[in-house]
Amino acid sequence: MRCLLSASLALATLAGTVCAHLPHSSSSSSSSGSVVGKRRKTLGFGPSHPHAVFRSSPYQIKTNGFTPQDPAMDPLEVARIFVEDVLSERLDKASSYKIRQDSYTDKNTGVTHVYVRQLVNGLEVQDGDMNINIKDGIVLSYGSSFYTGPTPAPFTNPSSSANPHSEFCQSLKDELPPHLELAFTSNSQVAMGTLLSIPPALMHLHADHCVSLSSPPPPEAFSEDPADFRSALLKFMATATPSASTAEDILNNFGQYRDEMVFDPTHHFTSPSGVDEHHVEFEVRNVPEAVNPVKARLAYTQVPTADGTSAELHLVWKFEVEMQDNWYETAVSVSYPHNIISVVDWASDSPMPIPSSSTAPIPKYPSKPDPATYNVFAWGINDPSVGNRSTVKENFDSLASPVGWHALPYGNDPAFKGARLVGKEFWRNTTTTWGNNVFAQENWEGQNSYVNNYRPDSSSREFDYKYKPKETEKGDALEEAQKYINTTVAQLFYTSNLVHDLYYRYGFDEISGNFQQYNFGRGGAENDAVIANAQDGSGYNNANFMTPPDGQNGRMRMYLWNTAIPYRDGDLEAGIVIHELSHGLSTRLTGGPANSGCLGWGESGGMGEGWGDFLATTIRSNKEYSDYAMGAWAANNEKGIRNFVYSLNETVNPSTYKTLDKPGYWGVHAIGEVWAEILWVVSQRLIEKHGYADDLFPPTPSENGDVPEGDFYKPRKGGKGPLVPKHGNSLIVQLVLDGMKLQSCRPSFFDARDAIIQADQILTGGENFCTLWKGFAERGLGPDAKVEGRTPWGGGVRTNGYKVPLACEEY
Asked: Does the keyword Metal-binding apply (predicted)?
């Protein structure tokens, strides 16, 4: 049944809705076509949380009065006691919390990562997060952004008129050089684009976030009913659309678009995210520019007070909006004029889990085919400039991909969705680039369909295709590139599966939110394999990855690069593919699998980019040290697409923590460069101490699933304790992934640094405490580093810290 919101809805959200039959009417939205070389429009901003903390020191935790519990106590019970201890003065009938269902125990370290969401007046505080890391009854560390102010009356907003969107734009404007003032006195993007003195990255940042709509709708266009989310949603869509004509059409025909929206209420006895009970959300259809129904729900969000020392709660509509080039999670104020409070783009450019000890048996194959083969640039060959193709086997890992790369259950196969399956066969063996971890195909039309898109099909499962593009006239270059789509898709499928298997072995498994259609009874949410689109037709010279919460498919779009003739195919540069897949890794591990809003902007969003660069560079590196550029082959530029190549030499790459203060370092990619460079330096210090592993893949498991130590892991006494990689390059990968699990939602550089150092304490007993601190301090991120006046996107005044802890001064 299609339902239109009634005036009594919001105040009865948890009780029910009033429904009426309405005629279906399609939206008249339009979308602008992609322009060659055009940057994808993306929004990403939100309030700062000055009260947020990450505590990784036992002394900091003891100050709350919390004492260790019985080692045998259920970690979730330990977490409950801890939360109620920390919030003893804040918990009442109106303010409470819920332990989320995506909490899990890491199989290697034994640390339980517990995720908690704050509730006020029965509604979630959408940025009120706590993550608690527990082992043997001890809270090792925790992060919290819980609201600590007075509880508001139900369904009311504070009297202040705070508008974080406007404050964001004003603070950005204030930090710009005075001669750029002219750019922000015009409402015309065209006029702004003619000011050639403005740096392109800065133009992109301000134009996407802050350019006012030329003709906002009058107040009477908005519904006076605070229960009616349609006006708030349209206000966001007019801001988010990349098409100026569509935005204008929405504003000029606001009432028509609003009245054409229809919705379905979706009731959950237990919320999919484990946040609250008797939860109601709405699926809204006929939303202009949305490619799928929009999810809407009522919530609170925190907005800093005028003095910036505390926060107040604002009632908001929380929307999940999937567009052609974006997948947004946004909070828009319930009351007029519907201020946009926060936006996270899940697209990045460029039941309780079943305990692992009770793994369900995997249904056996009726027949298991021989491994597939691929003629590809093998693992470790970053791009065509550094090596040739060769024939390799389907090198799946028996832990990460128990049934290989070309099999999945019929019941989890999107190609059979809604079909009535006859017979008793469980597994489907495919002869295409379609399996449990990855669906790879062309997407020349640049749309969201993928099931029936073209992909190579080999009955012998020998994916051997030529690749020898010719130099052509510019007008024929696209057609020439498309001739080699079989090679491209096979390469993308191969690289993506290897990344899946590698990250799995370092702890990105089912319960921590990895991407698989079927989870083999090992916990986590299913039906979320990566949709990998090759030669995507929505643009050039880029790549992106959309990471919704666990249980929804990740979507990767790889592009052609028109930087040379013949065109260069980003699918063939492993570093770009690894970077994009790493967005899925860091987003799912930070803040828990069911929360994709922890790396949206500022330093945290920048680190999302930096981890991708660092892991891609680490994977391509070898024992003989070299500097590395990012995207050099695709961009046809030996220096790559970043400001600097990654190097130990400070004259080649001078990046330090303080570099973030420089003009041009407000965007997440520039912030990410600094974080990746710092990690690169840290990794080289670990390699100097522990040596280098020629292969980052751990040893093959035995038939019973045990992992031999071999020369990869440090020997364990009596075969007990966590597996610890013994070489520097493998150890840093483990510490980075473990650190993502430990750190808080919306982490700063300091939080991520401290989480990596704590990961080493958990894994090795702190063997590398001083090595890690010295590496971080080498680029200004020592314990004496600080930042003052941090702004929402990462601005502020930083001070480099080159000291190390006292215990390390003689080290």
From this structure: yes
Q: Which helix (H) or strand (E) holds 139?
A: strand 138-144
pLDDT of residue 95: 77
DSSP track, 518-570: --TTSSS--S--EEEEES-TT-BS-EEEE-PSTTS--EEEE-EE-SSSSPEEG
Ramachandran bin of 715, using left for φ above 0, alpha for ψ from -120 to 50, beta for the remaining angles: beta
Nearest 5°: the CA angle 523, 527, 530 is 110
- Helices and strands of the chain, counted as H and E runs: 17, 26
The whole-angstrom separation of Cα 611 and Cα 470 is: 35
Residue 589 has φ and ψ, to the nearest 5°, of -80, -30
How many Å apart are CA 193 and CA 189, to the nearest integer? 6
Q: How many CB atoms lie within 10 A of CB 568?
A: 25
Regarding whether 261 and 306 lie in a shared domain, the answer is yes
What range does the domain containing 440 cover?
372-566
**C-alpha–C-alpha distance, residues 43 and 280, integer Å:** 27
Q: Tell me what pLDDT residue 482 has.
A: 97
Single pTM value for the model: 0.85
pLDDT tens-digit readout, 253-272: 888 888 888 887 655 444 44
pLDDT score recorded for residue 258 = 86
Does residue 167 have a known ligand-binding role? no
Q: What is the CATH number of the domain that holds 103?
A: 3.10.450
579 is annotated as contributing to ligand binding:
yes
How many Å apart are CA 693 and CA 618, to the nearest integer? Answer: 11
Give dist(CA 442, CA 444) in Å, integer.
Answer: 6
Count the domains in the chain: 4
Secondary structure (3-state) at 585: helix
Q: Which residues contact 394 (CB under 8 A, 6 or more apart)?
A: 371, 372, 373, 374, 404, 405, 406, 461
Provide CB contacts within 8 A for 483, sequence distance 6+. Answer: 469
Residue 392, H or E segment = strand 390-393
Q: Is 462 annotated as a binding residue?
A: no
Dihedral of the CA atoms 680, 684, 686, 690 (nearest 10)?
140
Same domain for 178 and 267, yes or no, is yes
The strands making up 543-546's β-sheet, listed across from edge to edge, are 347-349, 543-546, 555-558, 530-534, 438-442
Tens digits of per-residue pLDDT, 649-682? Answer: 999 999 999 999 987 787 788 899 999 999 999 9
Of the listed 580, 673, 677, 778, which one is catalytic? 580
Amino acid at 564: A
Domain final position from 144, 172, 192: 144
> Is residue 763 in some structural domain?
yes
Reply yes or no on whether 289 is catalytic: no
Residue 246, classed as helix, strand or coil, is helix
Residues of the chain with pLDDT under 70: 1-40, 62-65, 87-94, 159-227, 265-280, 307-309, 349-368, 418, 420-424, 792-794, 811
716 with 801, same domain: the answer is yes
Between CA 590 and CA 276 the distance in angstroms is 21
- Looking at 103, 121, 144, the residue that finishes a domain is 144
- pLDDT score for 164: 59
442 belongs to an annotated ligand binding site: no
Q: With DSSP H G I counted as helix, E B as strand and the rest as coil, what are the percentages for the chain, rounded to 5?
A: 30, 20, 50
478: number of Cβ within 10 Å: 17
Type and span of the H or E element at 134: strand 123-135
d(CA 442, CA 483): 12
Query: Which amino acid does the sequence have at 763?
Result: L
- Whether 284 is in a domain gets the answer yes
| Residues 274 and 408 placed together within one structural domain of the fold | no
| CATH number assigned to the domain comprising residue 546 | 3.10.170.10
Cα 156 to chain centroid distance, Å, stands at 32
In a domain, 358, yes or no: no
pLDDT at 100: 92
